[in-house]
What does this fold into?
Amino acid sequence: MSNMKLISAAVITASFALASQAALAYNAGDVFVRGGVAKTNTGSGNGNVAGDSLNVQSESGFTFGAGYLLTDKVGLELNSSEKFEHELNTASAGGVGSIDRLPINLLVNYYPMGGLDSRVQPYVGAGLNYTRFSGEPSGFNVDESYGVIGQAGVDLAITQNILLNGYVSYADVSADINANGAGQVGEIDIEPVTIGGGVTYRF
It folds into this structure.
């Protein structure tokens, strides 16, 4: 009798373990939200203003997003962040103020291990980036930017619903700089490489 109880308990435990592991697979219809922090490296040589070279300094901030899996391996993701406040420098004048950058990204992600029972779920994605600038130095305004973005990341399952996330992304951001009453006087051209991490919650 004791052996039967032990066998039954083992079978039940194994069944729960298998069910739990299967629930870690990414499947069509899954919905997730993400939140975390990221650092954007803007590089150097970020355009020009009035004939002077422009540098946009790197910055960090909070990020967030949400996604939906259309199939086991393909999904959509919409993500953004708080405004990144970048310090601005020119070759001749040094620090000339700051500018706020708000990116909004819509991507199609591919999950090579989607549908498979794995705690590690890597992904790659590509899509469109919209960037809005605000808080420009007095007398200037910067147009909106539309470009492409690519990303690669990984989710590591801690529980059925909670995953740790890490990613890197690259975007193409370019916009005209205008002076009040004088029209276009330059261009801001940055290719931000963003490295971030945080938590994914899957419903």
Q: What stands out?
A: Helices lie at 2-22.
